[in-house]
Amino acid sequence: MKKLSFLLLIVMLPLAVCAQKPLKVKVDGMKFELNTLTKEAELERNMSNPYRGHFIVPGKITYEGQEYVVTSIGKGAFYMSDVAYVEIPNTVKNIGPGAFFGCKLLSSITIPESVETIGDNAFRYSKNLTLAYVPKHLEGRARELMKYARIITDKPANQTPMMVQATPQTTAPQVTVAPRIVSDVDKDIPLITGSEDENTFAVIIGNENYTMVRKVDYAKNDARIFAEYCQKTLGLPEKNVRIYEDATYAMMLSAVRDIQDIAKAYSGDINVVFYYAGHGIPDEKDKDAYLLPIDVDGRQTHFCYPVSKLYNELGAMNAKSVVVLMDACFSGAVRGDGMLMAARGVAIKAKPMEPHGKMVVMTAASGDETAFPYAEKEHGMFTYFLLKKLRDTKGNCTLGELSSYIKTKVQQQSVVVNRKPQTPTISVATSLEGNWKEMKLK
Fold it and tell me: Measured between alpha carbons, how far is 243 from 206 in angstroms, rounded to an integer?
């Protein structure tokens, strides 16, 4: 009898294990299906609170003290959602059928080397998906599923780890990469202690690695270091600093929508700092100014972000103050020498745009001038002196003092270093004309 019971137990145990149902849970606003045996998780669709904006798929999650590795993006996980950009970790092995079906804001995606399979219709009706970085082994499948996208099998620059330790190989020559210059404004950033400024938010965009036109040297460094100053020197909580590197048009839309949602939730009781480093472009016909996403060339401006639209949207938030800082020019020139598009031979003077609401705008150059780099500091000229003033004053300077310092220093150093003029400009909304100079970033 004991033998029979033991045999029955052996037979029934695997059946019990196989019959075990996957565990459905919600972690940090995301839904997952957990396999409690393999400790693996699959991201699922969240119908009650759809995913949107810049979405980061976690590599690992913790539920009831147990750690699970996220190995799959499930069927229809982002179905018809408003995601503009999705970061997929290198733990993911499978992208399920219809995972990104109908994601109309999704314009680019990077699929890591770890992915082994992509399900049918994974990107169907995601018609704005025009750029995809995929591993070589999935190139054929990607071309089948992303019919309108430009498929690139080389890893994009913004996905390269900041620090890589390589093992020398005898089959190839060893390449020595010069270390990055650490500018004086990049180190010993003033750390202000005390209460954080919970009602000030920063939106920071650094567009450096353009896919169709020349890159903007140091733009990502500009954005990263300014973000550090926002946190350490201006006292913004980390969660209040939203940084977007190498932003597509959809990512720019998402960035602005994000700050609009925040302003609405706070009933306008916020201060906003909007920073942009990257290409600007003028429309050759109507002379309107645009911010250039990283995946377009500027010939079709309906894929670019109009500066007038940006000002209207930021001004309509009814925030207590909005300070816009743009290390870009709108003459069609690149940061440094040359024109944005080789066919264009002369710089264009874009129409000036009027700020709205309670907005102060500082731009790196005026008229048909170029926004130059400060190569020995590895920053844009405008951004370097913005950071330097914040460093020297520990952030305790008025906008009047800040703008005057930046304008004077950039004018002087541009002529000396670049042998060409560069004149930063200040534009102020009518409602602030009398008192903007006394305002501060902190």
Answer: 8
